[in-house]
Amino acid sequence: MKPVRDLLKHSSVYMIGQILTRMASVLLLPFYTHVLTPADYGVTAILDLLAALLATFIAGGMISAVTRHHFDGDDTVHQDRVWWTGLSMVGVVCTIIAIPMLLGRQTLADLTLGKDVANGAWFYTLTIFTMWFTVVGMILDAYLRVMKWSGVFVAISLGRLILNVSLNVWLLVSMKMGVEGLLIGNLAATVLHTAVLMAVFIKSRGGFKTDSEVGRQMIRFASPLVITALASMMMHEADRYFLRIWESMEEVGIYSLAHKIGFAINTLCLLPFISIWHVAIYDIERMPDSNQVFGKMFGWFTAGLGILLLGAALVVYPILPMLTPNAYAESIELISVVLLGFYAFGLSFMFEVPSMLSKRTRLMLPGSIAGLVVNVCANMLLIPLIGSWGAAWAGILTYVVYSFTILYYCRKAIKIDYPWTQFAASTTALIATYVGVRYACFPYINAAWQIFLSVAVCAFWAVVLFGREGLELLMERLRHTQQMKAANAKPASAESETAIADELVGAS
Predict the structure, then answer these.
(1) DSSP SS3 for 99
(2) Cα separation of 259 and 239, whole Å?
């Protein structure tokens, strides 16, 4: 199946970039936790919350809109209009929102950070400019993914990572600038990253041209997704603000570290797949057995994500205490709960497929609204009772309601037959494995054996859940490679070339 092969191929390339990025984050974790206090972490978490909400509000729906409309036509003129229109709309909207925020940055700082945080207005100035370039870069990132230029995407992303890390280390250590240095480093790296992406975009696309009708169509497609994406981001990030109200900024920092690690792990597992999944679904749709393929992808996705998150939840216990000071010790215990919530959230990427294929994105709105309501209520109820643990458990409740409400409504557009028995059995087995290993084995073995056991149980479940189907997929890939080599080994007439093409299409 060519779409599945493309999914695996490009996901593996994106995975390389994500692995290197997350490895850098892990290696720098001791550095950041020693130069930034929990209160500093809390300040950066609040700033990140607002920037992420605005970036998602402005570009979240438009990314899906330009991707969908790109595939509405194969001619270059149509695609030029789609991308230039989408990029122009995002740039204008972002500017309109950024200007009043800059004018009211002191009030914004007082409301969100508190009047006791020095330089709050300056922090917001840096954050708003970073947000503007981030939003534009999000559309350009989407362009590279749609064109399936995964190698270019990873190369540019790694260049940005190296620059960002270098600047942050210099500004935090040599210049001793604290939160300000972190924000300046992020801004400089983001500006250069977006400039490089824009250069690639301009060189590869036709001249500037926009289309008002295409713009209206994309707005109709994107509008429900904007609400969905905004609600989703609030579900991810708003618990920090609730902690700020009922707890201290130090508690915000401790929880933020746990959430940041959990989010980084989840991103490492999900982003390589999702980066190409939102393109591959339109290729799979054209297949005669698309329903069965989507069902199989759900089974593979949930099993693979579950195994990876199980391994991460176990490995953090022996490794993280070596990397962080005692002030952040409580965050280690929170990570497994955060990861379980992200597992539930990941299901939404499978459940939303019918709404994307049918262009009925409004079907995702009830899930976003339900999830947001649950998130607010659960945080308000649980955080005053159990602090950071309340925020973590509120996340699980939120994502379960969010994902399964999306499933309920999106099935009205296209009914996909998911392997529910397999899903329930594998999820239950992975959770039981975590509980057994963490509480029945870890207290009695040292850190080295804890790491070995974590890897061993993940390998065991990988063989159990992927053994037969994984081998079949590998063999199909090898057969396809051999056929391509045979086709290129000797000259072929027009008739034989057609025969070979037909054979390959039949095999896929």
Answers:
(1) helix
(2) 10
Show Cβ contacts of residue 239 under 8 Å, excluding neighbours closer than 6 positions: 255, 259, 375, 379, 383, 391, 394, 395
Q: Which of 223, 249, 264 is the last residue of a domain?
A: 223
CA distance 279 to 281: 6
Contact assessment for residue 62 and residue 135, using Cβ atoms and an 8 Å cutoff: no
At 341 the pLDDT is 94
d(CA 453, CA 423): 24
Give the number of other CB atoms < 10 A from CB of residue 75: 8
Domains identified in the chain, total number: 3
Burial pattern 239-253, b for ≥16 Cβ within 10 A else e, equals: bbbbbbeebebebbb
Chain mean pLDDT for the chain: 83
- Residue 153 near residue 15 (C-beta atoms within 8 A): no
Tokens 């991103």 correspond to 267
* Residue 392 predicted with pLDDT over 90: yes
Q: Are residues 397 and 495 in the same domain?
A: no
Q: In this predicted model, which residue has the larger pLDDT, 65 or 275?
A: 65
54 assigned to some structural domain: yes
With respect to residue 2, please indicate whether it lies within any of the assigned structural domains.
no
In one-letter notation, the amino acid at residue 499 is: A
- The residue segments making up the domain with residue 501 are 472-507
